[in-house]
Amino acid sequence: MNRFAALYRQRVRRDGLQLALWIGGTALLAFAAYAGVMDSFETERDRRSLLVAAIANPVILLFRGLPSGAGEGAFIGFLIVPFLCMLAAFMSLFLAVRHTRMEEETGRAELVGGTPAGRMLPTVVTIVHGLVADVVLSLVSAFALIAAGLEATGSLVVGAAAGTVGVFFLGVGLCAAQFMRTSRGANTTSVTVLLVTYLLAGIGNASGAPSDDLQRMESSWLTWLSPFGWAENSRPYADDNLWPLLLCALAGLAFAGTAVALQSLRDVNSSFIAERAGRVDARPALRSTTALVWRLSAGSIIGWAIGGALSGLLATTLGTVVQEVGADNPAIKAILAQIASQQGSIEQGVLTTFFVMIGILAACAGVQTITRARQEESHGTAEIVLATPTDRVRWLADFAIVGFAAIVIILAAGLAAASVGIAISDGDSGLYRGAVTVALGQVAAASVFLVVTALVFVVAPHASTVVGWTLVVLAAVVGLFGPIVGMPEAVTWLSPVAAAPVPVADGVDVRGLWWLLGVIVVTGAAALGLMRRRELAAGG
After folding, report:
1. DSSP 250-278
2. Across-strand partners of 218?
3. Do 216 and 68 contact (CB within 8 A), yes or no?
4. d(CA 429, CA 423)
């Protein structure tokens, strides 16, 4: 018991500030969302109108929850439950990998395993630590909604939904740490599972059956393949179903138990998916620092590109589905006509929304490439490279070049897949031009995150990872969801993905392009200029 308590206290001390920010930020989002949504949709008539628009346009349902009615609580649940669950999922999977695979990478797990604690107890403590963090997040989020004025039972269900999704991804992160050789690989695998399951829930919602009054949606079977779908089908403030949440929690605990069993079958610092052996002699293409950075980043870039291609294919095939949804419903037809008048066509509106999502994926790849420079620096391998004639500016520029190449590759993959979708569905040539326009605009938007993260890496290296990913998450929230909850245009334009050029009914809106290009030039030059005088910052 003393060993367990000592290890648990160590984790609490190590994660105290980080978990406080995750939990406090999630609760603050829940509280602020209520105030913001009620300001924009104060009357039931306003809320009913948005639900009709959401059900008429399945693209909205891809990135939101499951409509369950126009009451204040049910409406808030529709708008924020998936995002609260996503924050809990990120918190939990990062916690799981940090205390398992990362400990093995750094050699600390072997030191702890040599004490009376043994090999298995640290993993058990990590499971308990993660479960306690998810319970606290559940309660604090629920209390935030109750403090905002919502009904207690539904608020507790919202909190439980976020917490159980967190438990699910705690288990996913623990299993990924058993299979992958590095913490980077384990995190990438876990995040991929998160994105796929989030998309599955969205597609299941979008392909469901709406009620006659267009206020409630019954999701399709696809939703039940995703923990996000289980959370959404709890329908807080409407049905308050707890059994889908129990299913989610049990699945997470099963994953955690599987991870413990797998750990007992392998040696410390090994993995079930072994690292590929390297060549004795480098290929000619690898005999430069730029090629080295590409080699380090190629695997993750390919993964992001696959995600971009799948999103691009959906971008040009879902428009037909949207049209079919409204074929026999006059109310939906009216909403679709309004959307088409604003964005040129239904297909163009769907295309724009999906390419914003691909732009976010490209931004993730760019930020991940720059944060890889931080990992190289903290692990000491950067010092080896800089002991050669390569200077600091060239070294950082290599990461920026590869990061920009990643952005272009991901958006090109999305554009190629979108073109295939247009050809299959016999789309008009205007969709090709629209796809190219949106893709080029998102190249500029994603590059903003690349250079800003590079600047943070230069001036505050220890904060570069946290700041880079936080900016992407905030921009995604504001860019994708800001217009839906009534944020002013001046606020939504603070998100580069929302300010990027997009096709409109009478041409192309390029107003945001100029500030994006200005930020890229000024910030990129500042990062490279300041890097010349910066010393290496070792340590995690």
Report:
1. HHHHHHHHHHHHHHTTS-TT--SSPPPPP
2. 209
3. yes
4. 10
In which residue are the tokens 């829940």 written? 30
CA atoms within 13 A on the CB side of 508: 17
Distance spanning both ends of the chain, measured CA to CA: 30
At 509, is the secondary structure helix, strand, or coil?
Answer: strand
The DSSP annotation for 43-72 comes to SHHHHHHHHHHHHH-HHHHHSS---B-SSH
Is-contact 206 61, C-beta < 8 A? yes
* Of 455, 438, 452, the residue nearest 500 (C-alpha): 438
Residue 328's beta-bridge partner residues?
none
Burial label, 482 (beta-carbon count in 10 A; 0-12, 13-18, 19+) = buried
Residue pair 217/67 in contact (Cβ under 8 Å)? The answer is yes
Write the CB contacts of 304 (distance below 8 Å, at least 6 apart in sequence): 361, 362, 364, 365, 368, 406, 410
Q: Which of 452, 363, 487, 349 is nearest to 32 (CA)?
A: 487
Distance between CA 269 and CA 264 in Å, rounded?
12
Here the tokens at position 163 are 């917490």
Exposure letters 359-388 (e unless 16+ CB within 10 A, then b): bbbbbbbbbbbbbbbbbbbbeeebeebbee
Q: Facing residues of 509 across strands?
A: 502
Average confidence score pLDDT of the chain: 83
Q: Which residue has the tokens 């209390």?
A: 143
Cβ(228)–Cβ(162) below 8 Å: no
| Six token digits for residue 174 | 């623990």
pTM score over 0.70? yes
- Which residues make beta-bridge pairs with 502? 509
Residue 349 confidence class, pLDDT cut points 50, 70, 90? low
Q: Dump pLDDT digits (tens) for 183-236.
A: 878 888 898 899 889 888 988 888 888 887 778 888 888 899 999 999 999 999
As a whole number of angstroms, the distance between CA 399 and CA 500 comes to 24
